[in-house]
Write a structure and sequence with these properties.
UDP N-Acetylglucosamine Acyltransferase, domain 1; eight-stranded mixed sheet; seven-stranded parallel sheet; globular
């Protein structure tokens, strides 16, 4: 299988409602997250308060000591708890709950997906109805390897992404257990269940 035949958008059913470019691959989208968010900013309704490329829906709530580094879109019904850090192009599409102490970088998170607390999500696409228990993370870089390029396992075939920063594609309905780790390049089909303390390293099993 080549990259061109990877129909990954079926992993996230709501994708066409928010983004029209279905030919772009997940790692290409996350690499361009800031550009994508900036483009969407210009089409937002008056229901958003926009200042310095940070758009917050009037129904969203943020607690104290939240750090937002533009560009960012925080959609309707979102909640961001104290001491969170969002940066590098983040789009919370709606009804997302981000618990205390979480960090999100260059990621698009579809509606009704939640992070419990002390989670890290880097350079990733997160579908709808996904839940991260406390302490679970998506790693986005191979610190331990000399060759930093990230590959993904797609239908049993190793595919190079051409990027050294990519976390995961997490399909709709996935559940990520407490303190689990998704290695760079993880591809989770919809409704996958990752156990607590589990390390997901798909390429080590290929």
């Amino acid at each position: 299988m080549g990259q061109e035949s990877f129909n990954w958008t079926v992993y996230i059913k709501k994708f066409p409602e928010y983004l029209t470019d279905t030919s772009t691959l997940p790692w290409q989208l996350t690499a361009n997250a800031s550009t994508i968010v900036r483009q969407i900013l210009h089409s937002l309704s008056s229901d958003y308060t926009i200042q310095d490329e940070i758009a917050i829906h009037k129904s969203a709530r943020t607690e104290s000591n939240v750090t937002l580094k533009a560009p960012i879109i925080i959609g309707p019904g979102c909640f961001i708890a104290a001491n969170c850090y969002l940066r590098g192009g983040v789009w919370l599409m709606g009804n997302n709950s981000i618990g205390p102490g979480c960090e999100i970088k260059s990621s698009l998170i579809f509606p009704n997906s939640n992070l419990a607390h002390f989670n890290f999500v880097g350079d990733s696409l997160i579908g709808s109805e996904v839940n991260f228990e406390a302490g679970s993370i998506i790693a986005n870089h191979f610190n331990e390897q000399n060759d930093k390029e990230i590959s993904a396992l797609i239908e049993g075939v190793k595919v190079k992404t051409g990027s050294d920063k990519f976390g995961a594609l997490v399909g709709d309905g996935c559940k990520i257990g407490a303190n689990a780790v998704l290695s760079p390049g993880t591809i989770l089909t919809p409704n996958s269940l990752i156990k607590r303390l589990e390390l997901v390293d798909q390429l080590s099993k290929s």
